[in-house]
Amino acid sequence: MHFRKLSEYFDKIENVSSRLEMTSILAELFKETPGEEIARVIYFSQGQLAPPYKSIEIGMGEKFVEDAIAKGSGYTKKEVHEKFKQIGDLGNVAEEFLKKKKQESLFSTELTIGKIFENLLKIAKTSGSGSQGLKTKLLAELLNNASPVEARYIVRIPLGKLRLGVGDPTIMDAFAINLSEEAKSNKKLVAEVEKQLKEKNEEKRKQELDRKIRVRVREIIEDKYNIHSDLGVIAETLITKGLKGLEKIHIKPGIPIRPTLAERLPSSKEIIKKLGKCGVEAKYDGFRLAVHKNEKEVTIFSRRQENVTEMFPELIEAVRTQIKAKGAIFEGEALAFNEETKEYYPFQITIQRKRKYGIKEMAEEFPLTLFCFDLLYVDGENLMPLPFKERREKLKSIIGRGKRIALTDSIVTDDPKKVDEYFNENIESGLEGIIAKDLNAPYIAGARKFSWIKLKRSYKGELSDTVDTVIIGFFKGKGHRTQFGLGALLTAVYDEKDGMFRSIAKIGTGMKEDDLKELHKILSKISEDNKPKNVDSEIKPDFWVSPKYVVEAIADEITKSPIHTAGRGKGKEGFALRFPRMVKLRQDKTPEQATTVLEIEKMFKNQKNVKLSE
Ligand code: ATP
Question: Could you write out the DSSP letters of every residue in 42-89?
């Protein structure tokens, strides 16, 4: 496939505003893409070269991209820079200059997706002294042969500013459209769906059937993606082998599984009412890590599925010596633990272990302990469908003696009073609260379900849980804050329904001066003049930013709001955070892992329940 064709599709996507239109353009693109190229098309459409867990960052600074545009278009660096200052998007600068150049020379080789991929991969893998020159050369070579619209995207990918707004949900929706026909020939699936139909009128019933089949296909795709976090592989299977082909994809050490997540309930009484006799565990405040062991090879993934293996040498060593199984996938929370005083260090100490340099020294000073809470796979067997109590037994049986790997502390009870006592004990020893677990539930990857329910410390007059919001814009500082360039953040929560980020709070407190400076530094790199396509907000900040950074915020309560768009519907007002304060940046979460609109609705209801019962 030629990159020109893909660029034309990208251009179409960029020019539509509704998600529905975007999905149908993607569906068309996927129909035209051959199996051997679909994975790259998927990665490109999200501005990547590989699934996030492979941690391949192309990362080229603006300065070097400007140089490459100059080389590839024949204009001077100064001209490129001036134009950039004027129009603010290097992709558009490249496009404009190449338009002019193309009138003069019409001879160029057609760029294939393979060639673009090859050069961008080389750019990503080149490092060390003199590497910038080589990177610039590789990009210029592409631009030299590019058409203007191709140049727009060739430049935006290494800058990490593709601006298409294509998220995982849209890609899966597009495949669901394309595979619905195949699903209709699957008698079992159709019979299952027919049972749920409500319409009586024949025509409407047919439409309902079509819609429900599409929803079912989408679920089948997502279920697979949840246990095999590589949309490229999923897409390739769908194109070459159809929906049925997915049955052959199984969990495998080395490929991350999307984490199961906890629901919230306001009290231990409600937790017991919901779960009955359940496991109750300490809620540790550290990093959630997923450990994959395959013989001697050990890989560790973060909450957002980055490969963080290199950061935790002491845990790697411990997995090799303490874990008795040859192959295993298990999860735990890692935190710095003071052996002498038998106390947990605060999160501020643990977070320092997230670093690229000085790893060995820090591992010696503040070694982590991994408190394990689930086992998903052991020696060729997928344990995810088993009831939690069985998984926990097996987990216990594979952890051998040693200091660095332990089982989470837990009790089993059906008495709310015992839950409260246990909760208080944990708070006293410096932990965050508790997580109750349904003893009979399977491991539900990628979903927030009642198989886990968290209960955290509640401060008087405050929400009992923090909200993870996504930064969608910022305001210039006023008065004393003018000097920092940033005075407040506009933040949003994630709407899973359609992949949009909807506004919920303007946060202007909780940040220290250093935070303001740091936020300004990272946000101005990704600021935009126009509202990003996946953002829904009526409040207009001084600068928009595309959803990337997650900020944990605490607030007094959730209120109804006429100005915020989170949760807004026909005749329904949105939600806002009342007196929001920033707690910290949550580097361990992707924007899609932030709090969702649905969670806000539930938290709003929970908060009413608490008030009524007081
Ligand atoms: P939070 O900000 O409350 O940690 P979250 O959105 O990161 O929430 P949730 O699924 O809502 O994740 O809450 C569960 C989180 O608690 C897990 O992601 C994990 O990092 C952490 N955790 C700490 N102790 C445990 C435990 N014993 N069992 C499961 N998760 C635990």
Answer: HHHHTT-SS-GGG-------HHHHHHHHHHHHS--HHHHHHHHHHH--
